[in-house]
Structure formats: C-alpha cells, structure tokens
Design goal:
Elements lengths: L1 E4 L2 E4 L11 E4 L7 E4 L7 H10 L7 E5 L5 H4 L2 H7 L4 E5 H9 L3 H4 L2 H11 L12 E3 L4 E4 L2 E7 L8 E5 L4 E3 L20 H12 L5 E2 L14 H9 L5
Parallel strand pairs: 4-5, 5-6, 6-7, 11-12
Antiparallel strand pairs: 1-2, 2-3, 3-4, 8-9, 9-10, 10-11
Helix pairs in contact: 7-8
This protein binds zinc ion (2 copies).
Length: 241
C-alpha cells in the first residue's frame, strides 16, 4: 500500500484461493470527494478499510465505488464495503450495470465451473451479487472528481463492460484487467469476453501516453517505457484474432 502521487493511492490485493484485486483510491484527500476503484475479493473489506485509513484517508470522504469491471475478484467484497460506507454510490459501465441490477451473475463468475467452485468455497448463494447502480458509465466521460479530471474509456474484451480511468496530466492509467505489467493481459475466454475487441482495446490504450500503469493485479509500473502497451498489443495480436 502506498501513495502513488498526489491523489492516487494503492491498496495491494492479497490473493486467497483465488486472486484478490488491487484497490485504488483516487482524488485529493482535502476534496472530500474521493473514489474507490474496485472492491476486491470476499472477506477482504475490513483489512482494506484498515489500510485505507492507514493512508490518512477518512472513509467518510469516499463518495463512490467505481468498478473497472464486475468479475468476482473485484466485486466480491462490495457488499461488505458498502455496509461500512452506506453513503457511497456505485458507478459501473452500462453493459455490466444492467446485469448487475437484474441479478444476472454470469459476468461475476465468468463461467459455470467457477460459479460452482466459488459458491462452494465461499458459501455464496445464487443472487447475492445484485446491486443498484447509481451511475451507468458509457466511456467518453470526463469525470471531475476529487479535484482531478479522469477520463473514462470503454475497453471491452476481457469483459463486456471493462473500463479504464486515465489522468492526463500525470499520465496515469488504471486499466482493470485489460493489461498488466510484464507484457501480460487479462484472460479473454470468460462470459462476455471477446478476443478481437480485446485487441482493439489494447490498441486504443496504446495511443495514450502512459507513465504510471496501475492494473488490477500483480505489480504496478511507476515508470512505463514509451510504447509499452502498443508492444504488448502487438505481441498478443496473433492470439486475439
Ligand atoms: Zn477480470
Ligand atoms: Zn481481476
């Protein structure tokens, strides 16, 4: 856990039987208008809240949770978190917000095998991942939040409603599971995934100037080499046809 820059905080995921996503908190603390990016795996809320407070952040200042996408490792502890922050809004891309509101959990679990395994492992009942979404994102929004400006990009492929958040002045990119460090990318075989669109999304991200890459898992990159995402896209292109 650490402060990445003024207005960007990193709370590292702690993997369990299945991975736990990283959480980021964005916004200048004095703004009182902070956003939490992703929630993480089931059972991780108390520890994450403790670490967020340890960074000097007041939970009362977190106005919303924005999901990069709604896979289980990112949304698993959302209900625990919202119990502790009942004032917080939930913002999700429309393509994953609608199923979430209807209690359609296919995106959450990704495939039936994972549903069965995770439900047994964590004692989850059908329909627990049903949430009302306060704001449905579409991509193309410029969010003025936390005294900063974050652009929303719709980058489908890993999932239908994956988004990235991009801060232009510091060249910070939060791409969820679409691209990681070490030329890795997220899997593209789960419900709602689409290899061709994943390739297009990587190309789209490749057009951005990115200095700091803050993905959903594994290590973060504080000094991204020029052309890193484009090179990643090119390496994966043969598999993403
Ligand atoms: Zn994912
Ligand atoms: Zn993930």
């Amino acid at each position: 856990m650490s402060q990445i820059s003024e207005g960007v905080f990193f709370i590292e995921g702690k993997d369990d039987m299945i991975p736990d996503s990283h959480v980021y908190v964005i916004g200048k603390p004095e703004s009182g208008d902070l956003s939490m990016i992703d929630a993480g795996l089931m059972g991780k809320a108390n520890d994450k809240m403790k670490r967020i407070r340890g960074l000097g952040i007041r939970l009362e200042d977190i106005a919303r949770v924005i999901m990069t996408h709604t896979h289980l490792d990112h949304i698993g502890c959302l209900s625990e978190i919202r119990e502790k922050m009942p004032w917080s809004e939930l913002w999700v891309h429309a393509l994953e917000a609608d199923p979430l509101e209807q209690g359609d959990e296919r995106t959450v679990y990704g495939m039936d095998m994972f549903r069965n395994m995770c439900q047994a492992q964590y004692g989850l009942k059908n329909g627990v991942f049903k949430f009302q979404v306060d704001r449905k994102l579409h991509g193309g929004e410029a969010l003025s939040i936390g005294d900063m400006r974050w652009e929303v990009l719709h980058i489908p492929g890993h999932s239908a409603g994956s988004i990235a958040l991009y801060e232009k002045t510091q060249e910070i990119l939060i791409p969820g599971d679409v691209v990681y460090a070490d030329y890795a990318i997220g899997r593209f075989d789960l419900h709602g995934a689409d290899p061709g669109r994943h390739r297009d999304s990587l190309m789209q991200l490749g057009d951005l100037s990115v200095k700091v890459l803050l993905p959903g898992h594994n290590r973060i990159m504080r000094k991204v080499p020029a052309g890193y995402i484009l090179k990643t896209a090119e390496q994966w292109a043969p598999y993403l046809a």
